[in-house]
Amino acid sequence: MESSAEKLRGLRITSLDEDDDETVVPHQPLPGPSAAAMDYEDDDEDEEEEAEVTIGVLTKPERPGLLLRHLFPSKAGGIPAWLDPVNLPSGKSSCCGFCGEPLRFVLQIYAPIDDNDAAFHRTLFVFMCPSMACLLRDQHEQWKHKHGNPCRSVKVFRCQLPRTNAFYSTEPPKYDSSDKPLCLGAPVCHWCGTWKGDKICSSCKKARYCSEKHQALHWRTGHKNDCLQLISSSDASKSVLPAIGKVHAGTSWPEFEIKIDYEDTFDSDSCDETNSKSLVMQRHRKPDDMMQSWMDQFEADADNKCWASFQERVLRAPMQVLRYCREPNAKPLWALSSGCPSNADIPSCSFCKGPLCYEFQIMPQLLYYFGVGNQPDSLDWATIAVYTCQGSCDQSVSYKEEFAWVQLHPTTPTRR
Question: What is d(CA 244, CA 201) in angstroms, rounded to the nearest whole number?
Fold first, then answer.
């Protein structure tokens, strides 16, 4: 008989075309090699066989409750489904290094490692400041990572647990009403629903917040009146505080489930070209022959070629918001040839001091689903590549910060 561990490991990728209205498809862990197989390749090495890439696309959950933490989801927007629900990141870890505001949840991916017992459950979480001004400053700080502890507006946290842990059953989820976590999580902010609520309202002693700003925002938007009701009410069941999982409008991006499939299953010929181009921004240049000849000698031409190649590759699956591959020869799909990190630019793991390896990247199409507009300070990027500890080290810290490299869109002005 198949063991419970084998059942959980057997939750593998299924085609996005194979929909079944009668059953709920279990969340699919992202595939990856063993930690021992990971190794960096030099930039100047000859081209080798291309690694198989997994694509992530967004869909609304089939029913409520499918994105809760004890079901180990991959999701974007909304609030995080913390893997370790008690020992959350706090303090400066939860804030933008530039404006000091609490970071907003972007996405999480469930990516266990088969031959690492400490990573039987493993989820990567991405957060960022919604300010483009901070992201522009982040561009220059990421180059300084080898020379200290730079400020960042984009942060990635890795959390992993062994099969036997204090939070979840050793049995795989059944995806029905019987699935329950083993314990409650830490109280979170009543405004954003994301970070630990370390601060308590001094009046009602019930509302919790992650920061003074979120406490002030909650007070101005209704808690001033609610607080009086909480003080005068002796019945806790009549609480006017928002329910767990509910946050105030504008404090999070729309919530989606991330469905995964291999890139080569997408048929680019069947894509609607008009819709594809609406998701992948185009750039048009028509230099004359003399100017083109002059440009050939400079890096700008290499950027143009790289951008064209980037567009062509993305159009195979224009709805993709995520590209994942933890194979030894995996590399990000860069939009520009300039501004790419070399191996020397990628820092070591800040915990075990071992090397980092590329694991996944976030595509600009995510901004479309999040409804991000075109205002001067609206977020915009070409791609965000995430590098994680090659050995997925198991240290005493529950949420270990990894490294993100942000490449801006070619048309985005840079700030020196």
Answer: 17
Half-sphere exposure of 147 (CA within 13 A, CB side): 5
Q: Is the model more confident about 215 or about 297? A: 215
Residue 243 corresponds to which amino acid? A
Q: In this predicted structure, what is the pLDDT of residue 322?
A: 98
What is residue 272's predicted lDDT score, i.e. its pLDDT? Answer: 54
Strand-pair category, 54-59 with 403-407: unpaired
With a cut of 50, say whether residue 266 has pLDDT above it.
Answer: yes
What is the SS3 assignment for 261?
A: strand
86/127 Cα distance (integer angstroms): 18
Q: Taking a C-beta distance cutoff of 8 angstroms, is the pair 378, 132 a contact?
A: yes
Displacement of CA 48 from its chain's centroid (Å): 28
pLDDT confidence band for 262 (50 / 70 / 90): very high
Task: Give the residue from 16, 90, 18 showing the smallest Cα distance to 56.
Answer: 16
| b/e per residue 212-242 (b: at least 16 CB within 10 A) | eebbebbbeeebeebbeebeeeeeeeeebbb
State both tokens at 267.
């048929």
| Separation CA 96–CA 128 (nearest Å) | 7
